[in-house]
Design brief:
The complex is a heterodimer of chains A (55) and B (834). Chain A is 0% helix and 45% strand. Chain A has 55 residues and is an all-beta fold. Chain A has a domain at 3-39. A three-stranded antiparallel β-sheet of chain A has the order 1-2-3, with no helix packed on it. The relative contact order of chain B is 0.11. Chain B is globular. Chain B contains 34 helices and 21 strands. In chain B, a hairpin with a 5-residue loop joins β9 (467-468) and β10. Chain B is of the alpha/beta class and 834 residues long. Classes of the chains: A mainly beta (55), B alpha/beta (834). β3 of chain A pairs antiparallel with β2 (91-94) of chain B.
């Protein structure tokens, strides 16, 4: 299970080995979208947000 | 669209003075959402609110890079570390936001941690309860590793190794001043004239740097000689600046990318999708290229502010938003009409909220001295252009209307008053004050321009660009006028001057010798002897604090450095020097004087009751003070009630103020900053009057150890000004506000009942006219009645947006300690027209 297989992973246009992991968060005060750069090949087996692309 | 308010409801809320409820009903849905979305970062009476956590990302990424590049010159090493942070940190976009960029990490409830600043602050963060992010055990392990790495390596650690040990001990005692002598914890002016005028984006600055490097490299590969040697370091500095600019362009475009991803993949509301695409377009454009509209102008400015605060802790936010963004407001709203006034108001209100939500971890002494806020964001509006003509524009008034809608305690506004300010602007200022914001404060522009020219020789045109560097001190935004570093450690707890004069330099609270020996006050036979002792302590205190700051300043390029700030400073780009180097700067240093009027009232009391009326001997007085007036309440009350007090137009005590300020000003010219400029004094307080209340002992003005000190600047002691507001102004007018110091803070409290209708406006306007005619430089107002304040103490949940002016800043009343709240309630309510 790697990040690049996740529906929340968006590869960079100029470097497909890296991309943004985008997540939606709603806390007590606000909703927001966040992004953090990840390697496409990073192990996502322990990631609670992992969802297979297309699911 | 805001639902139409029933007239009766509006009248009821106005009559009750419930401005915060009215604001909630009047602001747009977007502003209401964004306002309520904010996690307050200011400490509540010194403690962080539940849910606030410290951000670890910056420290993790910064430290990782720092370790990898240990052989690089400092500026390059710093630029690489900051670039790594900007490239890899989590970013987020809040729902309904049109402006992006956040200081403090991966979530809106986080505050920033600057691990490279001071080990003692790193230790404090590690041990602070409640702010360690989950999972706590794992976070503490990570923090311990980071703290261990930086122990001995931070900017303050390095400074501590070379500072005079006696100076260090006395400074660190916390008794005579506060702050840290490094730009790791200070605040910087911004050279807006260089990058925010619409003529220059970061790509233009990169092109300038490339030209500089090319010219330098031609020389360094040419004929050898001593003149080419400095160029090697300069080339490194330029490379570092360029690296930062490129990193910030990438950072901005990360937001563009995220906005597009959300718009194209997740957002179902077509209007919000359009907004996100506009956010994307904005972030693609700025700061790489100059702005073309209001949203881009605000966003450009905000990106620079955010990155400057990722680079270091900034305890203030010098800005002149109407002057620099006003032309874009005019273009969008009035000329091109691409924005309605309501749409523009959403942007203006959000611009205020974005500043309000920012904050870094502050050590406890700073939290107690700045209760409820994370720093003094005082935005300067109004004033004049460089040619002397009125600078007010539509955005000047829009900012004040937005302030009334969003009711943030930070930023506050500071109106540069001059004789040509139009009535419309004054009415907006009046409405803000009447509705209890505590701002704008009013500054006398001609006096402040003259002041800036007098102390540092800034030319007239440059002086006219001035902004509040923090709460009060004017600083130009120009190439040689802008100040990159204002370290809070040139802040003096001046009540100690009086205490040490009475106890021969000994601190009776700390129980150690602090100041020089100035004579056993029990043996003083004349007032002049006491005054000479006071002058000796005054000079000693100013000297010690300024020595510390000067050293910190001179060593800052070596011990800290600021590649990003340098990239936005014209003189740095031109010369290839670090912005924090004193080279090329015209100077803007000052010593903040906390707890100042205690000196005046105390000296006057001793002069009268001991030396003139001979009611008491000096020995009796010193004995009484040494025992905190114990068993001598009648004597204490004599000193409270029967000695003249400042603020009553009484020459007896007012001339003591005049003499003290003259002697301080004289000494200010004798002590120099690293560029050879003077260090004038600036009496004001923030909430230092509460923070120091347990550190200053009994004094001849009648105070006991533990009593709140006066609220600061040249404000009379609470309840001690008994002759009305004009008498206060007249007292304050007896010295020269341009030449006798840097600036002088005056708090005044007005009655809401008086400020009603047209009559209220006329009363206030006449007051301002008197203030201006008498030549005062500053005044600020609290307009809230005791009943409301007491109700807020009982039911804080119903008064979350009630704001008070503390001193050099405003705070939400519910965010300050009970002692500070009571101190504000005690302030005299002035009756205008009396």
């Amino acid at each position: 299970m790697m990040c690049e297989k996740c529906k929340w992973f968006f590869p960079f246009e100029d470097d497909q080995t890296r991309g943004d992991c985008v997540n939606r968060v709603v806390d007590q005060r606000q909703g927001y979208w966040k992004a953090k750069p990840k390697d496409a090949g990073e192990d996502a087996s322990k990631c609670p947000n992992f969802q297979v692309k297309g699911s | 669209m805001v639902a139409a308010l029933r007239k009766e409801e509006v009248e009821r809320l106005e009559k009750e003075g419930a401005w915060w409820w009215l604001a909630e009903k009047r602001r747009s849905k977007r502003l209401d959402y964004l306002r309520k979305a904010v996690w307050k970062k200011g400490a509540l009476g010194g403690e962080y609110a539940p849910g606030i956590k410290v951000n670890l990302e910056r420290s993790i990424l910064f430290t990782e890079s720092w370790k990898q590049n240990e052989h690089d010159p400092r500026m390059i090493r710093k630029a690489k570390a900051l670039s790594s942070v900007l490239d890899n940190m989590t970013i987020f976009i809040t729902d309904h936001a049109q402006l992006v960029g956040y200081i403090g990490g991966d979530a809106p409830n986080k505050i920033e941690w600057y691990c490279d600043g001071a080990s003692m602050i790193n230790e404090e963060i590690y041990n602070e309860h409640g702010i360690i992010p989950d999972p706590e055990e794992e976070s503490l392990k990570t923090m311990a590793e980071i703290c261990d790495y930086w122990a001995g390596r931070t900017s303050v650690d390095m400074l501590a190794r070379i500072i005079d040990p006696e100076d260090a001990v006395k400074f660190l005692s916390g008794a005579i001043g506060w702050g840290t002598p490094t730009s790791a914890f200070g605040y910087s002016g911004k050279n807006y004239e260089y990058w925010l005028t619409g003529e220059r984006g970061f790509e233009d600055i990169i092109a300038e740097i490339d030209r500089k490097i090319a010219e330098a490299e031609e020389k360094t590969t040419g004929t050898p000689g001593p003149d080419i040697l400095p160029l090697y370091d300069k080339i490194q500095n330029w490379e570092a600046m360029k690296m930062m600019l490129e990193a910030v362009i990438r950072y901005a475009r990360r937001y563009a990318r995220l906005a597009r991803i959300v718009a194209e993949n997740f957002e179902t509301d077509p209007k919000r999708r359009e907004e996100l695409l506009r956010v994307a377009e904005t972030c693609e454009r700025v700061p790489a290229k100059p702005q073309r509209n209001l949203q881009e102008s605000f966003q450009y400015d905000h990106f620079v502010q955010v990155v400057a605060r990722i680079e270091t802790y900034e305890g203030a936010w010098p800005a002149r938003p109407d002057y620099y963004h006003g032309p874009w407001y005019d273009k969008d709203v009035n000329i091109d009409k691409r924005l309605t006034r309501e749409e523009a108001m959403d942007l203006v209100g959000e611009f205020l909220i974005r500043a309000f939500e920012s904050g870094g971890f502050a050590p406890r002494w700073a939290r107690e001295g700045l209760q409820g806020i994370t720093g003094t964001w005082v935005w300067t509006i109004g004033g004049v252009k460089k040619d002397g003509s009125d600078a007010c524009n539509d955005l000047t008034t829009a900012l004040m209307r937005a302030a009334r809608l969003v009711r943030v305690s930070n930023p506050t506004l500071s109106l540069r008053w001059h004789p040509e300010v139009e009535d419309e602007v004054m009415r907006e200022a009046y409405e803000c004050i009447r509705q209890g914001l505590g701002y704008p404060n009013i500054r006398h522009d001609p006096i402040m321009v003259a002041n800036t020219m007098h102390w540092y020789g800034h030319p007239l045109e440059e002086a006219r660009t001035w902004v509040n560097q923090a709460c009060m001190s004017p600083c130009p935004t120009t190439k040689h006028g802008v100040q990159p570093m204002r370290m809070a450690s040139a802040t003096a707890n001046t009540a100690k001057m009086m205490e040490y004069a009475l106890f021969n330099g000994y601190d009776p609270v700390l129980k150690m010798q602090m100041g020089p020996e100035s004579g056993d006050a029990r043996n003083f036979k004349t007032y002049e002897e006491l005054y000479e002792a006071w002058k000796k302590q005054m000079k000693w205190m100013m000297n010690l604090l300024v020595r510390t700051v000067n050293l910190g300043r001179a060593k800052d390029p070596e011990f800290f450095s600021r590649p990003f700030l340098s990239a936005t400073y014209e003189r740095s780009v031109e010369s290839g020097t670090d912005a924090v180097s004193p080279e090329g700067e015209r100077g803007n240093a000052w010593v903040t004087f906390f707890t100042w009027v205690e000196n005046i009232d105390s000296l006057a009391a001793v002069k009268k009751l001991v030396f003139e009326e001979k009611k008491y001997t000096m020995a009796q007085l010193v004995d009484a003070l040494e025992t905190n007036w114990e068993g001598r309440e009648e004597m204490r009350l004599d000193f409270v009630k029967n000695a003249p007090k400042w603020g009553n137009d009484d020459d007896y005590v007012d001339q003591v103020m005049v003499q003290c300020l003259k002697d301080v000003a004289k000494h200010s010219w004798e002590i120099k900053d690293p560029s050879g400029n003077p260090w004038p004094a600036l009496p004001e307080n923030v909430s230092g009057n509460i923070h120091y209340s347990n550190m200053v002992g009994a004094l001849p003005n009648g105070r006991r150890l533990g009593d709140a000190l006066y609220d600061g600047g040249i404000s009379p002691g609470p309840g001690l000004d008994k002759k009305g507001p004009t008498a206060v102004l007249k007292s304050c007018s007896k010295f020269d506000h341009a030449t006798d110091g840097r600036a002088f803070l005056l708090n005044q409290r007005l009655s809401p009942a008086q400020l009603q209708g047209e009559k209220g406006y006329e009363l206030w306007k006449n007051y301002i006219k008197t203030w201006a005619d008498l030549g005062l430089n500053h005044v600020q107002f609290n307009v809230v009645d005791d009943k409301t304040l007491r109700a807020a103490q009982r039911e804080p949940e119903n008064y979350q947006e009630l704001i008070v002016r503390v001193a050099g800043y405003s705070a939400h009343f519910v965010d300050i300690s009970r002692k500070t709240q009571d101190n504000i309630i005690q302030r005299t309510v002035q009756g205008l027209g009396c």
